[in-house]
Amino acid sequence: MQQYISAMKEVDLKTKTAVSLFWSFLDKFGHQLINLFSSIVLMAIVAKAEFGIIGILAVFIAFSNLLIDSGFSRALLNRKKVSIVEYSSVFYFNVVLGSIIYIILFFSAPYFANIFGEPKITPVARILFISFVINSLGLIHQTLLIKRADFRGLTKVNIPAVLLSAIAAIIMALQGMGVWALVAQVVAHSLFRTIFLWFYTGWRPVGKFSFELLKNSMQLSIKLLTASLVSALFNNIYPAIIAYFFPNSMNNVADYTQANKYQDIPFAMISNTFRSISMLILSEINQEIERLKRVVGKLLKTISFISFPVGMLMILIAEPVFSLIWQDKWLSAVPYFQMLALAGMVSPFVFVLNELYIARERADIFLGLEIAKRIVLVILIWLFIPKGIMGLAMSWVVYTYFTLMVSLIFSQLLIRYSFIDFMRDASPYALISLASLSLSYFITKDINGNLLYIITNIATMLGSYLLLCKILKLEMIKEIEIWLFKKSNNE
């Protein structure tokens, strides 16, 4: 009987995972697709230096996103039962926190302008940072949707918000409003998203605040929030370093930030999709070590199947794609794009492993790792900065692979998922992707015309990749075939 119950739980978990994965992927795919289209249009209209201004402020925009996924939010997801007073207490705390951060940065804006020698930074920053307060107002609403596994609801909220903000930004750019179009896109997205969250969930805070209840989540959440602050600072510090140390700063910052943004689109979609699923699933089975190991292995294997071929294809077709869309305007960003894609293709693994530490309520490991890793990053930046902006990009690649290695060491300690397990799960897909990349390169290297080159490479590389996976009978191909077979039978 116990085995039957356990088997039923496994089936329920797989079903919940599959449904959640579908809606989470749809949400992230739609979000990134709209962002991609709007960015293509905005990059063609708005001057490159204007993107540089936003790039310098990227670290503070990251703080805004951090409030959405703050430590308290993640701590609430780990709890089985949470009272409305506790939800309300966390809500009020985050609104106050967001407001305090905004006030501090509002008065600090002129100092940022002086440091980087760009007067426009002051008014831009003061408007842009309003998104901090707005995002804090939707924190609990998003937490409730994730806790209910209502990723369909999140999709209904996120897609209209990103679409409306993109339309507003494009209209303003066409009116010649330059950097303010980019500012409007960020602030409008925060505003629309928060409004839709309030309408969709129907949740409202009660007029009670309990510091005692807040303390229930404090130990875990403060460590997570601190770790996230450290991560947000260092993950977005490169544009500020470029602006401070290199000449022609705004154009250089624009090249680096847009290259990083574009290479990150598919990997952020993969990371956020699997991170959302990991939040839900790993927390649910956080006391079952063997199940955790199986689920983590399956998640990383699925990521490998998608991430490696996508990353290598992006590197191969980067230059003709940039040339086709923007002619010569953004070609100087291509080398950074290609280098950063090497890091991007393994970044989703780190996100999932981070969720493992949180699910196991080992925020001490999470925080300790974040601090230690950032010390290593500072050392790498110092070592590579003499090689210029490309050296900085290389330092990020080295750092990302180092981070993955360290994360796997601790995953072995927590759930006995080792580096050897990871290599067994991921390396077949990495090696097949590399083989497909080589084949596609030699077949298409003499093709003239950007569009034909792009299409031929996509068809050749992905076709050969899927064929090799099929020939070698890899697990992910088998699962896709089973899924398609079931779908065709149902129809």
| SS-derived structural category | mainly alpha
Which stretches are poorly predicted, pLDDT < 50 over at least 5 residues?
1-11
* Relative helix content: over 70%
- Kindly report the average pLDDT value: 82
Order of helices and strands: HHHHHHHHHHHHHHHHHHHHH
Strand content: under 5%
The helix tally amounts to: 21
Radius of gyration: 23 Å
Silhouette? globular
Q: Main sheet?
A: none
Number of strands: 0
Report on this model:
- This protein has 491 residues and is mostly helical.
- Helices cover 86% and strands 0% of the residues.
- The protein has 21 helices and no strands.
- The chain has helices at residues 2-45, 48-56, 58-68, 71-78, 84-116, 121-128, 130-136, 139-147, 151-174, 179-201, 211-235, 238-245, 249-284, 289-326, 334-344, 347-359, 363-384, 389-415, 419-444, 450-471, 475-490.
- Helix 13 (249-284) runs antiparallel to helix 14 (289-326) and helix 14 runs antiparallel to helix 16.
- The two termini are 34 Å apart.
- The relative contact order is 0.10.
- Mean pLDDT is 82; it is low at 1-11.
